Amino acid sequence: MLGVTILLASHASPASKVPDTLTFVNRSYVGHRFEGLTVMVTGGTSGIGFATAAMLVQECTSITYIVGRNSAQGAVAAAILAKLSQAHCQPARVPLVHFIRADIRKRTEFRKALTNLTHLHTLVNTAGIAGWADVGLADIPSFLDEHDAVYNNLYGAMTVTAEALRFWGFKGCLPAAGRPCTTPGYTPSIVHLSSEQGMTPCPGCATYSASKHGIVGMTTSTAGTYGVRALRINTVLPGLVDTPLTWNQARPFVYFPGNRSLSPPRADVQSGWQCVVDGKVIDGDCEEGGKGLGCPCEDVERDDPRLPLLFKAWWPPIDPRAVSAKVLDLAEPSSNVSGRALIVERLPGQAEASWACDEAASPPLYARACLAGSVS
């Protein structure tokens, strides 16, 4: 796709091909809602983040920043996005695409990522991990570390939000207490990726569910704090999606090619569903991580026949582009919605469906698990 072979030749990598996660592009997509705007996507080097960044450049943004920790994959993703924008936008409106290496858990790093920006109209935060799973809380050895989903997902989302608010000049203002905010001349927008599993029972994934539930709470609270005229902030809660996070979940069960049945997790690969090399857990998003380019542990193939056995009713996964479409709907400048929690789910035997948690009409699945309180 889009000159992938040429792009790979210019970015040395042990990978033999562009990862499948960088192929979720609808080449016929055209839009104008974000034309001329500056946008940033954290986690934009793969999965939902990359699919969202692709749709944004196809809307002819002015500048698109993708943020991640895997520099090798970030360079390739940025090159693909730049090529995509050239094919869709008029020469005078071709977006600039930049990769920024930053760890969103570290406030100083993300603050630095914002330093050279003059404007930031839209911020989409998709970065996250699965963390410890298939274990009870009593069996998790430590918290606030590399494999803690609360530390990575919730604290990362809080860092992204806090630093973006500082960038927009919202520090020191609190409209609810009579301290109005001076806006940057436009109404900025934030969309966080949460998860449907933050709203429904997820046995064995307490920290992941807690992190994603916390993102919804933080988002709705922030929406109520600043009001829709100053800031629009929303969440999208997908079900099982075709992303590296899903394949990392499957790794301990289907990691070994000769195993045609679902084996129990193996000690040498089960550690927060991450890659292990020489007894050391390798972070899936770092330079030598367990997914994407430059990784010592192979990703699970999407057509592996054991995956439907593992994920059962969740299978097949949702196309990331279906989630990205909802992200753009919430983020677009003409929207007047804030505090919305929008679920994107594949119902059994049906295509993708979506509904907001505060809608009066009950969806056919998980309706009672939704939170109310959306601000619009």
Please render the helix and strand layout as text.
Elements: H1 4-9, E1 38-42, H2 47-58, E2 63-68, H3 71-88, E3 96-101, H4 107-114, E4 122-125, H5 149-167, E5 189-193, H6 206-226, E6 232-238, H7 244-254, E7 275-277, E8 280-282, H8 307-311, H9 320-331, E9 341-346, E10 352-356
Helix pairs in contact: 2-3, 2-9, 4-5, 5-6
- Strand neighbour order, sheet with most strands: 3-2-1-4-5-6-9-10
The CATH fourth-level homologous superfamily of the largest domain: NAD(P)-binding Rossmann-like Domain
Share of residues in strands? 5-15%
The helicity comes to: 25-40%
- Do you know the CATH architecture of the largest domain? 3-Layer(aba) Sandwich
Between the first and last Cα atoms, what is the distance in angstroms?
Answer: 40 Å
The secondary-structure class comes to alpha/beta
Largest beta sheet, briefly? 8 strands, mixed
- The averaged pLDDT comes out at 77
| Low-confidence segments | 1-17, 255-274, 283-291, 360-369, 371-376
Nearest-angstrom radius of gyration?
20 Å
What gross morphology would you assign?
globular
- In the CATH scheme, the class of the largest domain would be Alpha Beta
Strand runs, count: 10
What's the structural domain tally? 2
Features:
globular, Rossmann fold, eight-stranded mixed β-sheet, disordered C terminus, 30% helix, 10 strands, 2 domains, disordered N terminus, 9 helices, two-stranded antiparallel ribbon, alpha/beta, 376 residues
Compact description:
This protein has 376 residues and is an alpha/beta fold.
Structure report:
- A hairpin with a 2-residue loop joins strand 7 (275-277) and strand 8.
- The strands form two sheets. The chain has an eight-stranded mixed sheet with strand order 3-2-1-4-5-6-9-10, sandwiched between helices. A two-stranded antiparallel sheet has the order 7-8.
- Helix content is 30%, strand content 13%.
- The chain has nine helices and ten strands.
- The chain folds into two domains: 4-243 and 319-369, Rossmann fold, CATH 3.40.50; 244-316, no CATH class.
- With 376 residues, it is α/β, with parallel strands linked by helices.
